[in-house]
UniProtKB/TrEMBL annotation:
Transmembrane residue ranges: 20-43, 79-102, 114-133, 145-166, 187-212, 261-280
GO-annotated cellular components: plasma membrane
CDD domains, sorted: TM_PBP2
Stated name of the protein: ABC transporter permease
GO biological process: transmembrane transport
Source species: Nonomuraea aridisoli
Length: 295
């Protein structure tokens, strides 16, 4: 009688074929929408009309939609605003998260148990929209970029995740650092951060995506349309179906189809996250595997 576990046996060809088929289907479902977005943004009006509004593979490539977006429209400014808010917000939020997680991971910290209970309490009872708005108003942050950064800078969930990761670092490293005369700041900089790159990368990616895709915050706190980030500008185009450009003043200028401009905006909004993600893949893999292997 064969006593080997099932997972150690050689898979049957039919099982391998089914797994390969499932993987191909999943990849197709994920890649197909991106292909439609990019293809439609590069298609001409004739191709879009011939294909009923969306193009899978353009036979003729046109960059008119991208030219209209970047030629004197609000999109260029909104991209700079979104990049700035995302960069500053991510750095500030990561600093607050790591500092709070490190303090709550040390049992000798002042009021460690009480503060940890307070952080966990916020996971169960989140503040509503009106209290947050009143707080932002009382602090004088309405119609400022700080209203997009401060209210969402600290997440109890992220603190708990980073705290658990720091607690998994061997205590011998902390003891050795203290024997060498290192203080808490030196331990954080020389021991905790080098050993926490994986979780910092993963949490940083989640934070950056949250700031980049933030739509409701700017809609609620920003009254000046000149300060709107990319997500609100995209919403304005979807509702009004119009993006003004300096090129429209040129005699004989023919504006690209609305579907191309809309898909070009979607591609521009998606591209930064797609560019950053590959550089964090190795850290994300390490973060998921941390704790799975003992010894």
């Amino acid at each position: 009688m064969n006593s080997r576990p099932v997972w150690l046996g050689k898979p049957k060809p039919i099982a391998v074929a089914l797994k390969a088929l499932a993987l191909v289907l999943i990849c197709a479902v994920v890649i197909f929408p991106f292909l439609v977005v990019i293809s439609t943004s590069l298609a001409t009006k004739q191709q879009i009309d011939a294909n009923g509004g969306y193009v899978i593979w353009p036979t003729e490539i046109s960059f008119e939609a991208y030219k209209q977006i970047f030629n004197g429209t609000q999109v260029s400014r909104s991209i700079v605003i979104s990049v700035g808010v995302t960069a500053v917000g991510t750095a500030f939020s990561l600093a607050c998260t790591v500092l709070a997680a490190y303090g709550l991971s040390r049992r000798q910290s002042l009021f460690q148990r009480g503060l940890l209970s307070f952080v966990l309490f916020t996971l169960l009872f989140a503040p509503g929209m009106i209290p947050v708005y009143l707080m932002v108003k009382q602090l004088g942050m309405l119609n400022t970029y700080w209203s997009l950064i401060i209210p969402t800078a600290v997440s109890a969930f992220n603190i708990v995740i980073v705290r658990g990761f720091i607690q998994a670092i061997p205590h011998e490293l902390f003891d050795a650092a203290r024997m060498d005369g290192a203080g808490e700041w030196r331990i954080l900089r020389s021991v905790v951060l080098p050993n926490s790159k994986a979780v910092v990368a993963v949490v940083g990616l989640f934070i950056a995506v949250g700031y980049w895709n933030n739509y409701f915050g700017p809609l609620l706190y920003l009254n000046d349309t000149e300060m709107w980030p990319l997500q609100l500008v995209m919403r304005t185009f979807v509702l009004e179906n119009n993006v003004t450009s300096n090129a429209q003043a040129i005699p004989g200028y023919v504006a690209p189809p609305a579907q191309s401009v809309q898909m070009a905006l979607v591609a521009i909004a998606t591209l930064p996250i797609l560019c950053v993600y590959p550089f964090l893949t190795k850290h994300m893999s390490k973060g998921m595997l941390t704790g799975a292997i003992k010894g």
